[in-house]
Amino acid sequence: MTAGLFSLLFLVAVALALIVYWRTSVSGHRSRLDQLDVRVHVNGIRGKSTVTRLVAGVLREGGFVTVAKTTGSAARMIERRGEETPIFRRGAATINEQIDVVARHVDPDVEALVIECMAVRPLYQQYSQDYMVRSDITVITNVREDHQEEMGETLEQIADSLALTVPRNGILITAEDRPHLRDRLRERAEERGSRLIYADPRGVGDEDMRGFDYLQFKENVAIGLAIARLLGIRRQVALQGMWKSIPDIGVVRLRWYDVLGKRILWVPLFAANDRESVVLTFEILQAQFPPDAPVIGILNNRRDRGRRAELFAQMVPTDLSSYLDQVITFGAYEEQVSRTIVELGYPADRVHLLGETVQPTLDQILATIAGLVGGPEGVLIGMVNIHTDQAELLIEYFEHLQGAEHRSELDESRDPVRMPAGTRRIRRAGTHVATGRSQSRAAGNPGDEPGREDVTGGA
After folding, report:
1. Signal peptide location in the record (predicted)?
2. What gap in Å lies between CA 255 and CA 257, rounded to an integer?
């Protein structure tokens, strides 16, 4: 056999092996998806991670054995009892991660999967839905201006891009409140044989929101309730599941801290980074700010988010000037950002650079913040992005001030109080059986393993 023929046969064998491997992998992936009773794909511009967590909470509390996966500020796998584990990546995130998630976490006992869409480019969004998730229910939280370079410059184009994740012959749920955009989503859904359900936030009362210990939006809760109605889960059960769910790492929790003798209300608003969401959040939060306390906004700009830095630089003088008394810049683009802010009319003496051009220590950052608060109290709001050296210094400082009260979201997820009701009942039953067995043995009566099954099965 000549060397050339041998090489050809070797290449053919490798190609055949790859084809067999690919077909086996695809078949296994589809089988795992097909065994699920519920598949939910969560897309949209704002609130995807939050809605993924809320919907998973609804399903767990409603009796479905559920796993969920978020991308968000920190990628997390949420197991069937609500316990979370970080997703570690060797390199950059890719949408192929969704296949790995299904392979590792969807076993024959799992009944429902809730997964946040990772894709941004339209082609990848369609591929993610049609081949990776194949959801029965897709959520499009809202349509906002973001990722225009990939998804289109207009809201209508962005809506069309998001609609590529609509299932075929399934359900689309959205809380988008603008009728013309909702109608556009409905048209795209009908083209795929699916129907649209509007999750109307007017159906969510103030009492429904009191179970959350962080800033939550009625639109997100309305989506969870819409899915509960669709699957026959009682409203109060759905609310309990949402209240128990762990918020995303970028969630807004208002806490007071002492900074060099000043009482500072810290508002981490990093996760809201489009104009509409930020302005709406400021409108909601303003009522919770102490009167006469100066409000300091931190523009935390990552070098790989230049367009977002430009957006917020324009927003400060045009949309936020009535809310922000002072502005501090962290991270990159400080000269460009400060120049834009001032050129559009915001006073130059109220803009303070503390990012890459200064490379400040934590002490310098704290001294600047305290110096901008003339009275005893002030409000400090972090915006734009979560990860820069300066922001991480400040966040770690505030976590240190919490001391023993600080718990990571991973620790919170393991709190038995947050487990689904069914899980807690089974655990209690197991404890009762173990106790009874020990007492029986102490009395000279051997334990009986089937008795444990009886009690557990009746839980």
Report:
1. none
2. 7
Q: Which tens digits make up the pLDDT trace of 228-252? A: 999 999 999 999 999 999 988 767 8
Distance (Å, whole) CA 66 – CA 114: 8
- For residue 1, name the pLDDT band (cuts at 50, 70, 90): low
Q: What's the half-sphere exposure (Cβ side, CA atoms, 13 Å) at 392?
A: 6
Contact 253, 215 (CB under 8 A): yes
pLDDT digits (tens, 9 = 90+) for 158-201: 999 999 999 999 999 999 999 999 999 999 999 999 999 999 99
344: how many CB neighbours lie within 10 A of its CB? Answer: 14
Cβ atoms of 152 and 161 within 8 Å: the answer is yes
348 backbone dihedrals φ, ψ, rounded to 5°? -65, -30
Q: 157 vs 412, which has greater pLDDT?
A: 157
Residue type for position 4: G
Q: Is the dihedral of CA 167, 170, 174, 180 positive or negative?
A: positive
* Residue 337: DSSP 8-state: H
Contacts of 89 (CB under 8 A, 6+ apart): 75, 97
Long-range contacts of 342-351 (CB under 8 A, 24+ apart): 344/314, 344/316, 344/317, 344/318, 345/317, 345/321, 346/316, 346/317, 346/321, 350/325, 350/326, 351/326, 351/327
Q: What residue ranges do the domains of the chain occupy?
A: 28-244, 255-410, 420-457
CA 424 to chain centre: 25
Whether 227 contacts 38, CB under 8 Å: no
**The CATH number of domain 28-244 is 2.60.40.420:** no
HSE, CB side, 13 Å, CA atoms: give it for residue 281.
24
> 85 - beta bridge partners?
77
pLDDT tens sequence across 369-396: 999 999 999 999 999 988 899 999 999 9
Give backbone dihedrals phi and psi of 147, rounded to 5 degrees, phi first: 55, 35
**Distance, CA of 306 to CA of 273 (rounded, Å):** 12
Give the integer Cα–Cα distance in Å for 351 and 329. Answer: 8
The radius of gyration of the chain's CA atoms, rounded to the nearest angstrom, is: 26
Report DSSP letters for 287-298, one per residue: GGSPTT--EEEE
Burial class (CB in 10 A: 0-12, 13-18, 19+), 271: buried
**8-state DSSP, 120:** -
Q: What is the mean pLDDT of the chain?
A: 86
Residue 17 CA to residue 319 CA, distance in Å, equals 59
User: Which residues, in sequence order, are CB contacts of 261 under 8 Å at separation 6+?
Assistant: 370
Right CATH number for 255-410 from 3.90.190.20, 3.40.190.10, 3.40.50.1110, 3.90.1150.10?
Answer: 3.90.190.20
Query: What share of residues in the chain are helix, strand, coil (percent, to 5)?
Result: 50, 15, 35
Could you tell me the pTM of the whole model? 0.70
